[in-house]
Amino acid sequence: MQSVIQKVSEKFKKPAVVDVKSGDTVKVHQKIKEGNKERVQVFQGLVIRTDRKGSHTSRITVRRIASGVGVEKSFLLHSPLVLKVEVVKRSKVRRNYLSYMRNRTGKAARLSGVEFDREAVNAVVDKKAEEEAAKLAEETAKAAETEAAKKAAEEAELEKKAAEVAARHEENNA
Description:
By secondary structure, this protein is an alpha+beta fold. The protein contains three helices and six strands. A hairpin with a 2-residue loop joins strand 1 (25-34) and strand 2.
């Protein structure tokens, strides 16, 4: 019999999540809200830590070098803001927490790659995330359409005013 906490945590879990391991190079598609606009930002880097794999609070820490500065971001895999996690490269590592990668730069930071079936690993279908992405694209298209209609109406009004001014100008010259 499940406890109340387990029932609640199962409710918030995504039905399918990509199996991510330490040493993987991943692309994390994250939904970002700026004001009233929403967009998807992709963060690509090396997974240096995985925490609580079976839980709804499972977390990965991704590190990348941006403009010569190491940047680390932590992502909750079951968060509704994380739309997709895509494994790009899998490397051979013998630890769960790759903290030593923080001190390495250049060639010393390379990890030896391992062959893996990329399509099989990334073939996780999350219908809610796909619906959310489609809804986001639809809203963006609708906003662009209303903006274009508004711009066309303004242009028509300007053309009407220009025609009136031209007609008055011809009356004054005649």
